[in-house]
Amino acid sequence: MTNIHPEGSIDLEVRDGVLLIGINRPNKRNGFTPKMYRELGEAYTRLDDEPALRVGVLHAMGEHFTAGLDLPTIAPLMQRGEKAVPLGLVDPLNLGMEGYRRRTKPMVVAVQGITYTLGIELMLAADIVVAADDCRFSQLEVKRGIMATGGATLRMAERAGMGNALLHLLTGDEFGSAEALRLNFVQRVVPAGEQLSEALKIAQSIAAQAPLAVVATRQSVLKAVEQGPLVAMHEFISVQKTLSNSEDAKEGVQSFIAKRDARFTGK
Question: Concatenated DSSP letters for 108-172?
Fold first, then answer.
């Protein structure tokens, strides 16, 4: 956590095909400034654009994941009708908004401590979430006279059902990791301090699989959730035909015959 920028930063590190994306403003509970939000969009875009990168891991420095948006710095931008993430980049919230790209590669998130508002929406917009057992979650927009517009109203109900979603959205209450696990907001709960290593372990396991197949599988699940199973299944034959003619599919067969680990190239 050296050389912390006063407006915070998004720090990047590459490890064997995994892009670690670190939220770095711990002295302000990792509250997001316009600079940080822009850099987050740039990091997500880098993940999608660089073939050597196969999986992203979003995590945070310090005791907390994020307290959400830093309103004093974000409010002027909102009042001018400007967006923190430039058009044309990958939207970290993956909402499919006009002018933004949607992420295609997997994203694993490690959360700890305070994980409020934007923090919950970022983790729900990702694919797999590992939570420390000390998490404090709250989607508290109703306490500020506004509404969550980063995906919580959509994804909480999708994961947990309407009643469970409204329980937390309409009260803005604080809940812990056990409740988040019960509601399918997170997939694993680990002792505090182990969340990043567990998330990295999952990401490395994904990175070892065939990249084209991983992307296609994720896209199929996303399409089924957003557009329905019938739409997703109509693409099964065409997608499988493309995948089965790839070099990675041939490598998958050869590695099986030779009883060795596959060496996938993403081609």
Answer: EEEE-SEEETHHHHHHHHSSEEEEETT-EEE--GGGGT----SSHHHHHHHHH-HHHHHHHHHH-
What's the CA gap between 260 and 245, in Å, rounded? 21
Token pair of 153 as six digits: 């109203």
Cα distances (Å, whole numbers) of residue 129 to 52, 64, 124, 134: 23, 15, 8, 14
HSE toward the beta carbon, residue 106, CA cutoff 13 A: 29
End-to-end C-alpha distance for the chain, whole angstroms: 38
Q: Does residue 47 have a pLDDT over 60? A: yes
Write out pLDDT tens, residues 70-104: 888 887 887 787 788 999 999 999 999 999 999 99
Q: How far is CA 256 from the centre of its chain?
A: 32
Alpha-carbon distance 95 to 218, whole Å?
Answer: 15
97: amino acid identity, one letter: M
pTM for this prediction: 0.94
